[in-house]
Amino acid sequence: MSTDKNVADRLLDEARSKAARSDSPTIGKIALIIGVVAVLVSPISILGWVFGAAAIGVGVAAVRRPLVARQAQIAMALGTAAILIGVFFFTLNIARG
User: Fold this and answer.
1) How far is it, in rounded angstroms, from Cα 33 to Cα 38?
2) Distance separating alpha carbons of residues 32 and 36, to the nearest angstrom
3) Which residues 6+ apart lie within 8 Å of 71 measured at CB?
4) Which of 17, 35, 41, 63 reaches 20 to 30 Å from 1, CA-CA?
5) Could you tell me which of 59, 64, 2, 66 has the C-alpha nearest to residue 28?
6) Quick one: pLDDT at residue 24?
């Protein structure tokens, strides 16, 4: 009987740690920071594209967590804006010749 209790305790501890990880606001903050950096560097086209794609990717991973869903949505919007700004500046540089 003691091994059953040990297994049950171990499973309960694993479930609690998994729940604690899913409630962590860290990934939302990281997504938001990447999104802000993406917008700031977006006039440099390639950096805007790379950081914008990273913000969207991390935002998609974070949006599944209810605690940071709003931050993740903002990060994805910033990533999209950074990509569009990067495309604008890329097109502008091509047009200038």
Assistant:
1) 8
2) 6
3) 25, 28, 29, 31, 32, 62
4) 17
5) 59
6) 75
Query: pTM score > 0.85 for this model?
Result: no
Give me the numbers of helices (H) and strands (E) for the chain, helices first please: 4, 0
- Please identify which residue in the block is written with the tokens 């990533």: 79
Contact 23, 62 (CB under 8 A): no
Per-residue pLDDT tens over the stretch 15-62:
777 766 666 789 999 999 999 999 999 999 899 999 999 999 999 999
Kindly calculate the radius of gyration of the chain based on its CA atoms and give it in whole angstroms: 20
End-to-end CA distance of the chain: 79
Q: Which residues form the domain of 29? A: 25-96
Q: 56 in a domain, yes or no?
A: yes
Examine residue 41 and state whether it is found in any structural domain, yes or no. yes
Does a structural domain hold residue 54?
yes
What is the distance between the alpha carbons of residues 21 and 74, in angstroms, rounded to a whole number?
21
